[in-house]
Structures are given as C-alpha cells and as structure tokens.
Automatic annotation (TrEMBL):
Domain Thioredoxin: residue ranges: 27-166
Protein name per the record: DsbE family thiol:disulfide interchange protein
Gene3D superfamilies attached to this UniProt entry: Glutaredoxin (3.40.30.10)
Membrane topology category: Single-pass membrane protein
Chief location of this protein within or outside the cell: membrane
Record-linked SUPFAM superfamilies: Thioredoxin-like
C-alpha cells in the first residue's frame, strides 16, 4: 500500500512540475468581459463595461505594490503612444499612491478602473498583478497574459492577436 501511495504522489508531482505557470487557463476566453460598475481612479466618475467597450483593447491589471508592474510600465506607455488602446485595472490599491505613481511614470491608460476590493479581479480570475487581457471590440476576452508585457511578449504573442482582431478576424 505505501508503494502505491508513493507512485500516485510521484505522478502528481511530475505532472505539477511540467505545468508552465505562465500558461494559467482562463475560463473567460471567448466569453464576455465581466460586468462591473466601479469608480475611475481618483474620481467620482463611475465606469462600467459599456464605458470601456467598442474597440480592441488591452486591460492591464496593475498596482503600486507590484514590482513587475513597474518594470512593464514603460513598455505599456510606449504601446499607448503607438495607438494601442489600454485600460488600467488598479488592483487592491490606494488611489493616492496610484495617482502619484501615474504622475511620476506617465499614464498609458485611456481610463483606470479602481478595483479597491478586487471584485473585478475576482470576476476575471486574476491570480496577481500584472495580468493583461486582450478584449475584442464586441467585449469578448480573447487572450490572457500573466506576467510582464514587454517587447518579446508583445511581438510574439499579443500583437498578432491584436492585429487580427483590429482587422475584424477572430482567432
């Protein structure tokens, strides 16, 4: 009996070690972006799904306490300057700190959704920051990237999907 338990545990261990943590599945792929009604960062303006829909866009989950978010921020700013639509989801953060961060580093976001309690993050299935969701013009989640968006990730993964969606083709 101990040998059988050992073999079963070994199989689970080997299976677990072969998983790539960057390829976390999302139940939302090809499903609508979640409904929400949250304030805009540092504002009393209420944002909802309708306010951020209608174009192909990236939704970037970020926070001031996230070191990786700081690393990816300059590249997101570059993408925004190239015309890529990016919305921020400021995740479990303080408005004052987030606004100071954007003031210091630049603001690549068309709007920043203040997800103070993490409710939108929970609906998206966020594991942590940064995470980026590629959403089509119809509001369907088409791709989820866990980790930093940089030149390699953009060129090899996100940009081809983004371009297909901009050209009206679903992948």
């Amino acid at each position: 009996m101990p040998l059988i338990l050992f073999i079963i545990l070994a199989v689970f261990l080997v299976r677990g070690l072969s998983l790539n943590p960057k390829e976390l599945p999302s139940a939302l792929i090809d499903k609508p972006f979640p409904d929400f009604s949250l304030s805009a960062l540092g504002s009393s303006e209420v944002l909802d799904k309708a306010a951020v829909s209608g174009e192909v866009a990236l939704f970037n989950v970020w926070a001031t306490w996230c070191i990786s978010c700081r690393a990816e921020h300059p590249y997101l700013t570059e993408l925004a300057k190239r015309g890529v639509a990016i919305y921020g989801i400021n995740y479990k953060d303080e408005d004052a700190a987030a606004l100071a961060w954007l003031d210091e580093l630049g603001d690549p976001y068309l709007a920043s959704i203040a997800d103070h309690d993490g409710t939108l993050g929970l609906d998206l299935g966020v594991y942590g920051a940064p995470e980026t969701y590629l959403v089509d013009a119809n509001g369907l989640v088409r791709y989820r990237h866990v980790g930093v968006v940089n030149e390699r990730v953009w060129s090899n993964v996100l940009q081809p999907i983004y371009e297909q969606l901009k050209n009206g083709k679903a992948n």
